[in-house]
Amino acid sequence: MPTITNTQIGLLAGLLLGIAGVVGGFGGFVVALVLGAGGLLAGRWLDGGLDLTELSERSGLTGRGSDRVR
User: Fold this and answer.
1) How many helices (H) and strands (E) does the chain have?
2) Measured CA distances, 60 to 30, 47, 51 (Å)
3) How far apart, in whole angstroms, are the C-alpha atoms of residue 45 and residue 62?
4) What is d(CA 21, CA 55) in angstroms, rounded to the nearest whole number?
5) With b meaning 16 or more CB within 10 Å and e meaning fewer, what string describes 24-48?
6) Cβ atoms 36, 11 nearer than 8 A
7) What does the pLDDT look like over 40-65, one tens digit per residue?
């Protein structure tokens, strides 16, 4: 029996919130898509599949990696 990961739960929760909060139409589709993506990212982060420190170091927001030549 396959196990359900936090990523899958987060995606499902985001999609359900989007469907519950929106009546319909293209705007509803976009909101559901954005909330589903947010749930997916939150689940990936909880599963350890998303490393936000790497992204912040690449962007230069932390001050680390400032010795790189641009």
Assistant:
1) 3, 0
2) 31, 25, 15
3) 19
4) 31
5) eeeeeeebbeebbebbbbbbbeeee
6) yes
7) 788 888 887 777 677 677 776 666 55
The label of the residue with tokens 């987060």 reads: 10
Query: What is the H or E stretch that residue 6 is in?
Result: helix 6-21
For 14, the token pair is: 């985001």
**CA distance readout (Å), 64 to 48, 52, 67, 69:** 22, 14, 8, 13
Give the residue from 38, 46, 1 showing the smallest Cα distance to 16. 38
Whether this model's pTM surpasses 0.85 = no
Residue from 46, 12, 51 nearest 32 by CA:
12
